Input
Amino acid sequence: MHRKWLVSRTNPGYIKYLSKAASVSPAFAQVLLGRGIKTPQAINDFLNPHISGLSDPFEIDGVKTAVERIKHAADTNETVLVHGDYDADGLTATAIMVHALRTSGIDVHYFIPDRIAHGYGFNPVAVKEAKRLGATLIITVDCGITSFDAAACAKKEGIDVIITDHHEPVKKIQDARCKVYDKENHASFELPEAVAIINPKSSNYNSECSILSGAGLAFKIAQALSMMHDARCTIHDYLDLAAIGTMADVVPLTGENRILVKEGMKLIHEGRRQGIRTLKSAAGLDKRELRAGLLSFTLIPRINAAGRISDASDVVRLLLSETEGEAEGLGSWLNRLNAERQKIEEAVYQKAREALRVMHDERAIVLSGEGWHQGVVGIVASRIAEEFYRPTVILSIEDGIAKGSGRSIPSFDLCGGLAGCKEFLLSFGGHRQAAGVRLKVENIPLFEKAMQRIVETALSKEDLVPSLEIDADVALSEVNHSLIREIAMLEPVGCSNKEPFLAARKLEVVNPRIVGNNHLKMKLKHGAHSVDAIGFDMGSTEVSGAVDAVFTPALNEYNGNSYIQLSLKALRPSQ
Output
């Protein structure tokens, strides 16, 4: 697919100043400036995140009330039920909350809904479970902000509820054009009845905590509990779980999230937690350096697999396990589930591609099929959205009801768009880039037409062309070991702190050839400087004459030797 090349450009004089003042190379100074890191102090703070930089959890609305209610539960020997979610963010959040409550001396149980039987969100079934257990307090993690029925049910049964959730609350005024809403007070939102609601998106809270994941918010509660004089837990116990949940939910890796992931990766690398150590072994990562980005392709899919095609409750048991035998059994089980999930996902993806057949001028993609597994439609929507660069909704039809997931592109607010189609939906909810929907089968054509109209109004044809955002133009001579060491300091990379893309112009291609499974290997040369380069799955790319290249430089280890290699992202003839 054709992509626009967008180069971040900054005043050369300021780059020179910042490079000298912060003791970084000019190329790296430009990379940092493109991320809004504009002063020597800001550079130091970003490159050296530390746990001491975590904000005070009591600054978040609702935390003080929640912690006081939890303390009362501990003092009066109450039973508490933690209501989680079936994805990696919700499961790690559940493990954090359960462990924090246990170390506070509370009799705590947890409930993880079944994706197909219960659906997403705080469920009335959990209220029945709480009543059966004799629980007088339910704490939700990663869900609950739109669960009005369940909250009302709990109140009727005399059970208090604390909601911790990072998803979008229901706005009193819905607008498909996605205006900025007033956040001066809770009056802007419809909120469930609860003892405390902890959701930075529902209040006038402008801190970086507004980008926390569900696990991040659970961590802030654990942090608040640890600050109580009689608390016996430490926040270090939860950094690995918070890191996994944060990476899994693809929230911005800046501010508080950057600290959580940076510090949490140290614990994951050390193998402090039995369950995570076992999961790393099951994924074949025992001897491999595990960077944050690799979590998204290794541990996180295994954690998610249970919630997609099985019962995710045992994942919490794995994350809290202190017994090697128990953890090994659960780790092997998740490995098998993930392999099964991959087969199911590929089958549904192929059916969706067949249903799509030929793209015309559609601005949005809505596909549906009888019996498509609900647990994988979100992944399939993500793959289709990336492949065709269109907001995409994939629906599974069963008994006259279509349930599904949507994924968007950066320029379109999917949740806001769904709000404009709400007359055709039974329910919907989620984020700007991902959402879930439920509707009657007979309304699918009307829903698709409405989505097409909304996306066509919101996006131009130019918006539907993906862009390749380039951090810095460099000379090939600037690509050296020192620059690679600087780039490594950007870790953890991910959402809002992506792997840097550099561009070099008018390069000579030397000895291009296809290696492995359709990979393009060559040397790129400019003047006296030449560097090895490889483009994965770029074997069909034509290379002749001078080229411009977009790449990320890295060190490649081979036979005990280390050398610089460019990981190619794109090539084009020099203009």
Notes: The CA atoms of residues 102 and 108 lie 6 Å apart.
